[in-house]
TrEMBL record:
Protein name in UniProt: RNase H type-1 domain-containing protein
Domain of life from the UniProt record: Eukaryota
Name of one Pfam family that matches: RVT_3
Annotated RNase H type-1 domain residues: 78-198
Length: 226
């Protein structure tokens, strides 16, 4: 029964990928390789299945509110917004301490981004670089892209379209004394999501130290409340 459901999902995703590739070719003159299309389909299918597993009764759901890190660890959340028409994205990143106080935050626009999957990977890479630049040594990264996080926590060599990004993140891990990567649902990633949306309005990177825009601060204060 499960195999039949997976087969149906695979058919739907394949049709969607073909339609998307056709539009790119007609409107942008960009041809999509078979490898790129298959990578997108399998990654999206994997993410759908993981989300489904997390929502099964009896499973631990991580779609909960933000919770603070322990001791001296800094928790960094990241997210991405993606505009398919302009092939652009924006990364939203926020770092908070064990009291829920904002240490730093940034939004970063990116151009020539092929799809939302790559946008999420770029946001993750930007978050790791951001933490390293700020000199954080014990960091807990959380985001709501299961596919990217799975690749980072896997011991196998990544061969997907985002492999250069994954490899760069793995190299940067050596800059930290302690570093963890974990998945969090959208409810726990709201501040980063809002920063990513704001980032799409700017043409250059924006940085905040110990503060964030008002709309994001409302989420931060809500997260800190019991």
């Amino acid at each position: 029964m499960r195999a039949d459901k997976r087969h149906r999902s695979l058919i739907v995703l394949t049709c969607w990928a073909i339609w998307y590739a056709r539009n790119e070719l007609v409107h942008d003159g960009t041809a999509c390789s078979i490898n790129k299309a298959s990578t997108f389909i399998l990654a999206f299918l994997h993410e759908l299945e993981t989300v489904e597993a997390l929502s099964v009764p009896g499973k631990v759901s991580k779609d909960v509110k933000w919770y603070p890190p322990v001791n001296e660890t800094i928790k960094i959340h990241f997210d991405a917004s993606f505009n398919p028409s302009s092939k652009s994205s924006a990364s939203g990143i926020i770092a908070r301490d064990s009291h829920g106080l904002v240490m730093a935050a940034c939004s970063h626009p990116h151009s020539e981004v092929a799809d939302a999957f790559i946008a999420e990977a770029i946001a993750y890479e930007r978050a790791v670089s951001f933490a390293a630049d700020l000199g954080f040594r014990s960091v807990q990264f959380e985001g709501d892209s299961l596919s990217v996080i799975k690749k980072l926590t896997s011991a196998t060599t990544d061969r997907s379209i985002i492999s250069p990004i994954i490899n760069d993140i793995r190299i940067q891990r050596n800059l930290f004394e302690r570093i963890t990567f974990s998945f969090v649902g959208q409810a726990g990633n709201a501040a980063a999501y809002e920063l990513a949306k704001l980032g799409s309005q700017f043409s250059e990177p924006m940085y905040w130290i110990e503060e964030v825009p008002t709309v994001v601060d409302r989420i931060v204060q809500r997260d800190r409340s019991p």
